[in-house]
Amino acid sequence: MTPSVLETVTEQRTRRSSRLLVPVVLTVGIVAVGLISLSVGRYTVPVNEVARILINEVISLPQTWTEAESNVVLGVRLPRVLLGMLVGGGLALGGAALQATFRNPLVSPQILGVSSGASFGGVLALMFGLGSTFLVGGAFLFGLAALGMVLLIGRSRSGGALLMIVLGGVVTSAFFSALVSFITYVADPYTTLPSIVFWLMGSLATADMAKVLIAAIPILAGSAVIIGLRWRINILSLGDDDAASLGVDPGRLRALLLTMVALMTAGAVAVSGVIGWVGLVVPHIARLWVGPDHRISMPTTFVLGAAYLTIIDTLSRTVSSGEIPLGILTAIIGAPVFVLLLRNSRRQAFIDA
Question: Hey, which end of the chain has fewer CB within 10 Å, N or C?
C-alpha cells in the first residue's frame, strides 16, 4: 500500500470515527448541561435526585426527594431550561444558515432586521400594558412584518438580489430600532420604562410551559426545514452559478431559508427578548470542531447553541444575588470568545470566502 493510499484510508477512518463520535458527545453533553442547570441555583437539588424526578414522570420510582425539590425542578427550572435550549438552538442555527446563505461568516439573525422588528412589537405591548399574550403576538407579527419589508426591498431591480436583501436588512433594522428608541423615550420612567429596558436586554425569567410551546412551534419547524435542506445549503455555498448548474434554484432556496430564519428569530425574541452573539459565535465553534460541511455542522450548531444559552442562563441566575440579563452576559462572553476563535481559526480560506 503506497503512502498516499495509506493517508487516504487513514483520513477516511478518521472521518468515519468523527461522525460516530460527534452525536455521542453532543447527546451526553446536552443531557449533562440540562441536569446541571436543573440542579444548581439558590435552592440546590442533587443531580441524582433531578434525574430521578425526571424519570419518575415516565416510570414510577420510589420517592426519595421532597415535594419542594420536585416543584423547583418541574415547575420552575424545567420550563426555563427547555426555553433556553430552544432559543439558543434556534438563534445559533439561524446564524449558521445566514452565514451559509450569504457566504459570509460575520452575519447573524440581526442582519435581517427581524430582531429589531420583533423588539418593536414587544416594546409596543409593554408600553400599553397589554400583557404577555400580546407581547408574544406583537413581537411575532412585527418580526414577520420586518421580514416582509426586507423581501420587498430585496425585489428592487436597482441592484443585485443578495446585496439588496442585506441593505434591506440594514434599513429595516435601523427603522425599527428608531421606533424602539422612540417608545423608550416617551415611556413612563417610573412604571413601563424599567420593564422595557429589562426585556430588551433578554431574559428567560418568566419562562413557563406556555412560552415553551409558543417558541417550540416556529423554532422546531424552521430548524427541521433548514436541517432537512443542509445538503442543498452545501451546494448553495458554492455560489449561484454552480448551484444552478447542479439543479438547485438559488433564489428560491435562499428565500425559503431567510423565511425560516425570520420565523425562528421572531419566535425566539417573542419569548426571551433580544439576545445577541449566539447566532454569531456558536456557528464558528461548530465549524472549528466538525468542519464546514453543513450536513454535520448544522445539527451540531443547533445542539451547541442550546447548550451554550442554557449555560449562560444558569450563570445569569447564579453568579450574583440578582439576575443578570442574558444580553449582557452573551456580549461579555461572546465578544472575547469570538475574537479568540477568529485568531485561532485554521480555516482562513472559509473566512475569506
Answer: N
